[in-house]
Amino acid sequence: MPVAKVNGVEIEFEPGMTVLQVAEKAGQEIPRFCYHERLSIAGNCRMCLVEVKPGPPKPQASCALPAADGQEIFTNTPMVEKARKGVMEFLLINHPLDCPICDQGGECDLQDQSMYFGRDASRYAENKRAVEEKHMGPTIKTFMTRCIQCTRCVRFITEVAGVPDIGMISRGESAEITTYLEKSVDSELSGNVNDLCPVGALTHRPWQFHYRPWELKKTETIDVMDALGSNIRADSRGAEVMRVLPRVHEGINEEWLSDRSRYVVDGLTKRRLDRPWVREGGKLRPATWDEALGVVAGKLKATKPEKIGAIAGDLQDAESMKATLDLFRALGSANTDCRQDGAAIGGGEREGWLFNSGLAGIENADAILMVGVNPRVEAPLLNARIRKGWLAGRTEVMVIGEQAELTYGYQYLGAGTKTVGKLPKAAMDVLTRAERPAIIVGSAALTGETGPAVLGALGKLAAKVGVVADGWNGFNVLHNAAARVGGLDMGFVPGQGGLSAVEMVQKGALDVLFLLGADEIDASKSKAFKIYLGSHGDAGAHGADVILPGAAYTEKSGLYVNTEGRVQMTERVVFPKGEAKEDWAILRALSERVGQTLPYDSLNQLRAKLMADHPTFGRVDYLAPARVFGVDKLGAKGDLGDVVFAPALKDPYLTNPIARASETMAELSAQRSAPQLMAAE
């Protein structure tokens, strides 16, 4: 390996590294504004100046200078210090004195670096320039007078998000960062530009003037707005979650976060259920916990086991589903299901419902067939990974289903089941000659009467073209619900002779229906006595006869399994609202009243039982290696017909009760349906 000297200390480095990377490997701090590890090199800000020998007798930008064997790098010479002070002085010529009112204050790169690397006074007395603010959408608040043209936002939107809506116009002092034709930024990842901005020119519009960073309590937890399980940090003040920021996890979300996951937090305080309710005379009235649980217990005990059932919602933690499953099995009911959409998965080998290649592993696929899935809206961070492989020229993408703009090129094969039944020869050739072929199937293809047949046909195709082989498993199911894989792993599906979720909500199917946070299924036809346990007054609560207030995902510690089968744990950020309780505790109290006391008195005991019954839940943050399984045995034989795959998410910003309670999600939804109107306002 080549060797360079950094301030007189020899350091080995890998070929292709820059001087900045070598210096940081040696433990030297190099200031920077434009450089970012995951973006292309721009060399705009000139803050990372160092002295290099051999080389010209002047400071050089270390971010754009390749390191060489035998090079001598100096990061703290008088020449370097003087040059950095001069650069900082230039950067601050037009910067306004906004620190007391700037949302970036307290966590601002410009503040920190000007204190450490800058001068203590400016020699410029000229008037500062002012730049008109720009409209970039509901998530981005602009103060463009602060902008130093580092172009981080431009590079992220263009390279990672794949939506080149932001760019630079004019030259010299007139240079400005703006959106093209003053339109809103049309990206599901737009909030990341606010994180990237080092000077407060772009800040989070939904949280403007809401907090100061040092006021917030920081809790590391997991996102549940989609099935990826992005690692996040939830910041709270008092009883309110004020903001959500991404944490670095290379295997899942790198250091990015989708707008739905980031800005949904205002929905955590609105439309909340904070006390039990019981319906009398057609109207709901407040009740005590003892009274509400007594009514529920009376109904359950008075009803035959085959006439009671439970449906688990998309945001439920594994502990609450385990308690529900144990209770209803103890009552003798086989009517349990966690698949509100009726997807044809569950039973058999675990790999049959996982994203087997792993979220990071999909970047290595050289041919991807997407069936009934739109990753740009269903899983934006996965879409960014697929785009990364496509940009590198190693991935060819083919699509069956919705013909949407995915931010990368693809070959469109057809709209539905007819194409699945007979794949074009060119597509078969691409999959056959690929070394690491992959199939990504979404819930749009797995629901409805043709779901089992589609899964069966894709399983046969996967076996034929070698999607599953030693060292590579490219058969991937992309879920939308954070609770889905955990529910399937523990067997939260109909037992012997039990009804599915779709069957349970039919008229006359059940006499008592328990909705565990289930809001995405239409239960209006069912005349059953409905019990709803959840956190928000949404669809499930509107038709309920008894409402039991539960905890949102930021108000409890719980296990979730993401779409690739990785178990992760959320941490409690704030306490449940009002009289609300943690879901498992409500179910434990209910079990006593029906005479089937669950065998655990604490969350730790419940987890021990869960892990004993299903060992996969005991391996937190573990991703199982690729394994060969009977992919050709998935699904069932049947007539594929000619069914068009409809989009799985009607509105990606209104997918669950928390999102539907959020004002920011409503604004994003409105922008998605009428972007021109939003830009004109």
From TrEMBL:
EC class name: translocase
PROSITE patterns reported in the protein's UniProt record: 2FE2S_FER_2, 4FE4S_HC3, 4FE4S_MOW_BIS_MGD, COMPLEX1_75K_1, COMPLEX1_75K_2, COMPLEX1_75K_3
Domain annotation 4Fe-4S His(Cys)3-ligated-type: ranges: 79-118
Residue ranges constituting the 2Fe-2S ferredoxin-type domain according to the UniProt record: 1-79
Stated name of the protein: NADH-quinone oxidoreductase
UniProt xrefs under Pfam families: Fer2_4, Fer4_NDSU1, Fer4_Nqo3, Molybdopterin, NADH-G_4Fe-4S_3, NADH_dhqG_C
Function: NDH-1 shuttles electrons from NADH, via FMN and iron-sulfur (Fe-S) centers, to quinones in the respiratory chain. Couples the redox reaction to proton translocation (for every two electrons transferred, four hydrogen ions are translocated across the cytoplasmic membrane), and thus conserves the redox energy in a proton gradient.
Catalyzed reactions: a quinone + NADH + 5 H(+)(in) = a quinol + NAD(+) + 4 H(+)(out)
Record organism: Brevundimonas abyssalis TAR-001
Superkingdom as given in the UniProt entry: Bacteria
EC number: 7.1.1.-
Keywords of the record: 2Fe-2S, 4Fe-4S, Iron, Iron-sulfur, Metal-binding, NAD, Quinone, Translocase, Ubiquinone
Needed co-factor(s): [4Fe-4S] cluster; [2Fe-2S] cluster
Domain 4Fe-4S Mo/W bis-MGD-type: 216-272
InterPro entries: 2Fe-2S_ferredoxin-like_sf, 2Fe-2S_ferredoxin-type, Mopterin_OxRdtase, Mopterin_OxRdtase_4Fe-4S_dom, NADH_UbQ_OxRdtase_75kDa_su_CS, NADH_UbQ_OxRdtase_ferredoxin, NADH_UbQ_OxRdtase_Gsu, NADH_UbQ_OxRdtase_Gsu_4Fe4S-bd
CDD domains: fer2, MopB_Res-Cmplx1_Nad11
Family label: Belongs to the complex I 75 kDa subunit family.
